[in-house]
Amino acid sequence: MKNIPLTLALVAGVALSGPALARRGDDYGRYDTRYDWATVVDVDPIIERSRRPVSREVCYDQPVERYEPGYTARRNHTGATVLGAVIGGALGNQVGKGDGRKAATIAGAVIGGAVGNNTSQRRGDYYETSGGYTTDYETRCREQTAWRGNDEIVGYQVTYRYRGDVFHTTMDHHPGNRLRVRVDRGVTPAE
């Protein structure tokens, strides 16, 4: 049993040296984490397209034809004046007796004639003699909708090479010509 401590020492030495021997493998430093640089082979932008409506008011002058009549005033108000005098005189004749009746008839005729003449002038006793078409312009507006497209880069598809092997990743920025990578159980971009 003198060899038991020696056997235990050998077993312990082999057990402790196993991971150390495994770390020395040439498989990209498989169990060690380290950082290195990879060569970027290709970078393709990831583009997101969007469309949105843009409305605006468009105004223009529209030609419009209008008829404009020409009027002439009637200059002869005699008929209305005479009719007013007759009606006024008849009404005045109904008032009073004797000389008062004569005065009321004359006053009624004068007042009736004046009212008839004035009424015919206010009434606009006009008639159309000429007219014609004229062209005016009216401003008219309408709403016009156009679609605006927008392309936005939201990321990059990156292809890179490390020690002869090719890898792919998606990044939120352009990496440039080389990419810092983390090498442990695999090769990944370092953050």
UniProtKB/TrEMBL annotation:
Q: Which GO terms describe its cellular component?
A: outer membrane
Describe the location of the Glycine zipper 2TM domain by residue ranges.
80-119
The record's section on InterPro entries has: Bact_OM_lipoprot/Surf_antigen, Gly_zipper_2TM_dom
- Localization per Swiss-Prot or TrEMBL: Membrane
Signal peptide coordinates = 1-22
Question: Any idea which UniProt keywords this protein has?
Answer: Membrane, Signal
Q: What is its main location?
A: membrane
Name of the protein described by the UniProt record: Uncharacterized protein YcfJ
